[in-house]
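Translate structure to sequence.
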C-alpha cells in the first residue's frame, strides 16, 4: 500500500507538470494580440463644445467661462472646443481678423486666463478658427477667397498656438483641402508638427456636414485631420452600418462621434428629452472620442436659437430640460 501511494503521488505530480508545460506551450504558440494604437490627450475623454460664449455664462464673456472651469472639471471632460470668437463680419473676407477676439466674447487677457485655469485642471483648450462662421456663403467664403483666407490663417495659427491653445477646429475642411491642397498641407504642419518650444501634440479637428459613412471615411483619409466631426450618426437608422464601416477602415484614435453642435443644435432637441441619456451612452461607448455640445449634460433644449442660455442655478426654470 505504501508503494502504491508513492506511485500515485509521483503520477499526480508528473501529470500536473505535464499540464503546466502544455499550458506554457499553448501560450507561447498563441498569436499575439494586436498592439494598442498610440493615444493622445484627445483620445482620453470627451470633448465639450462651447460655440457661443455669451450664452454659456451670465457674465457673457471668457472670464465667465474661466469661472466655470471647476464645474467642467467635474464632468470629466478632457478638452474644451471654444468659439469661434474671432472678428469675422458675415461674408466679408476682407474684414476677417483671426487674431482679434470679438469684443462681445471678451479680450486676449481673458482668454489667457481661461487657458491657464483649464490647464491647471488638466483640461485642454481647442479654438475654433472657422473663417466665415457667421456668414451664409460657406465657412471659407467664395472660391476666390479661399487662397487668401487660408494664407492668412497660417500666421494666425502660429499666433494662437503660441498663446497656449492645444489644437484648432475648422469647418468645411474638404473645401480648403481640395481648392488649395498645398496651403492645407502647410496648415496641417503648423498644427500637427511639434516644436522644441511646444513638444506636446496639438489636435487638428475637421468639421463636415457630410452624413455618408463612405464620404466621411474618404475625408478622414484625404484631409489628414486628427479627428473629423460629421453627421454620420444621422440618420439613426444607419448607426450600426456607419460605425462598422468607419471602425473597420480607421484606427479608433481617429474617430469622433457627435450628435448636434453649432449647426444642428442640442441633443435633446434632435432626439427628444426622453432619449438623451440613451444617446449619451451611445456616444460614450463607441470606439473613439465623444463630442458633446454645452448643456447636453442637462438636456438643454433649443428654443428659437441653436445657442440657448446655459442654466446653472437649480432654482432656475428648466425650459423643458432634464434634471440629472
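Result:
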Amino acid at each position: 500500500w505504501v508503494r502504491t501511494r508513492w506511485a500515485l503521488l509521483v503520477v499526480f505530480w508528473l501529470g500536473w507538470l505535464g499540464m503546466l508545460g502544455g499550458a506554457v506551450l499553448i501560450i507561447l504558440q498563441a498569436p499575439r494580440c494586436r498592439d494598442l494604437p498610440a493615444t493622445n490627450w484627445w483620445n482620453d475623454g470627451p470633448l465639450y463644445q462651447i460655440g457661443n460664449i455669451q450664452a454659456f455664462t451670465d457674465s457673457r464673456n471668457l472670464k465667465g467661462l474661466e469661472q466655470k472651469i471647476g464645474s467642467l472639471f467635474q464632468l470629466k471632460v478632457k478638452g474644451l472646443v471654444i468659439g469661434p470668437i474671432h472678428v469675422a463680419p458675415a461674408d466679408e473676407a476682407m474684414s476677417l481678423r483671426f487674431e482679434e477676439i470679438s469684443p462681445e466674447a471678451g479680450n486676449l487677457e481673458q482668454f489667457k486666463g481661461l487657458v491657464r485655469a483649464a490647464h491647471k485642471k488638466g483640461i485642454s483648450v481647442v479654438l475654433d478658427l472657422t473663417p466665415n462662421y457667421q456668414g451664409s456663403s460657406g465657412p471659407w467664403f467664395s472660391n476666390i477667397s479661399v487662397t487668401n483666407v487660408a494664407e492668412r490663417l497660417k500666421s494666425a495659427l502660429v499666433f494662437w498656438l503660441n498663446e497656449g491653445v492645444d489644437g484648432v477646429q475648422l469647418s468645411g475642411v474638404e473645401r480648403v483641402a481640395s481648392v488649395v491642397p498645398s496651403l492645407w498641407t502647410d496648415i496641417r504642419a503648423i498644427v500637427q508638427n511639434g516644436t522644441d518650444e511646444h513638444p506636446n501634440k496639438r489636435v487638428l479637428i475637421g468639421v463636415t456636414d457630410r452624413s455618408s459613412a463612405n464620404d466621411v471615411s474618404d475625408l478622414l483619409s484625404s484631409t489628414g485631420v486628427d479627428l473629423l466631426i460629421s453627421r454620420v450618426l444621422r440618420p439613426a437608422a444607419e448607426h450600426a452600418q456607419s460605425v462598422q464601416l468607419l471602425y473597420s477602415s480607421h484606427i479608433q484614435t481617429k474617430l469622433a462621434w457627435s450628435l448636434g453642435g453649432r449647426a444642428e443644435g442640442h441633443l435633446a432637441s434632435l432626439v427628444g428629452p426622453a432619449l438623451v441619456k440613451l444617446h449619451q451612452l451611445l456616444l460614450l461607448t463607441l470606439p473613439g472620442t465623444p463630442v458633446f455640445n454645452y448643456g447636453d449634460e442637462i438636456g438643454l433644449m433649443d428654443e428659437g436659437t441653436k445657442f440657448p442660455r446655459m442654466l446653472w442655478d437649480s432654482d432656475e426654470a428648466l425650459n423643458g430640460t432634464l434634471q440629472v
